[in-house]
Design brief:
With about 160 residues, the chain is mostly helical. It has helices at about 5-35, 35-45, 55-60, 65-80, 100-110, 115-125, 125-140, and strands at about 80-85, 95-100. A hairpin with a 7-residue loop joins β1 (about 80-85) and β2.
Length: about 160
């Protein structure tokens, strides 16, 4: 059944526009840098921790499961963007670090879609942000998506590695 109410149609159109904008940005990143949003998130997480970081720490930082992050790192390693080194203190720990090629990819990254969005969102009054949050939570409930785990990152497919 197709809703006939104009307000309902406007809500559906707005949701579709948001999904399309996120998908377009993800495709742009893939085209310009050759990496997915989750891969770039992991590179950024490594870069923010000088001296190497563990898969578990990156997993917590980017809100993705350790097995997903491990698969991402396998691809980044194969691409020559990261290195893995066993800790000299604890051989069970593996430290991840960026290569020069990994740092170059980060420098080539276009601005994240959410950066401009967050600046604009922070500029509106707190009461309006609260209303938006509550309305969006209600929309996710109506879509039966409120139980899905999602990172606070605008990405068309958070399982993409």
């Amino acid at each position: 059944m197709i809703p006939s109410d104009d307000t309902t149609q406007d809500i559906l159109r707005s949701i579709r526009q948001m999904v399309r904008q996120i998908a377009l940005h993800s495709k742009k990143l893939q085209r310009e840098v050759g990496l997915s949003v989750p891969q770039m998130m992991c590179l950024r997480a490594i870069a923010s921790t000088p001296g190497g970081v563990t898969v578990a720490a990156v997993s917590a930082h980017v809100h993705l499961s350790p097995p997903t992050v491990s698969r991402i790192f396998d691809r980044l390693l194969a691409a020559g963007l990261v290195t893995r080194e066993r800790s000299t203190d604890d051989r069970r720990k593996v430290a991840l670090a960026l290569t020069e090629a990994g740092r170059a990819r980060l420098r080539a990254e276009p601005p994240a879609l959410q950066d401009a969005f967050l600046r604009r969102l922070d500029a509106i009054p707190a009461a309006e942000r609260t209303q938006l949050r509550d309305a969006l939570r209600r929309v996710t409930e109506l879509m039966s998506a409120d139980e899905l785990d999602a990172a606070p990152v605008l990405n068309v497919d958070a399982t993409q590695t």
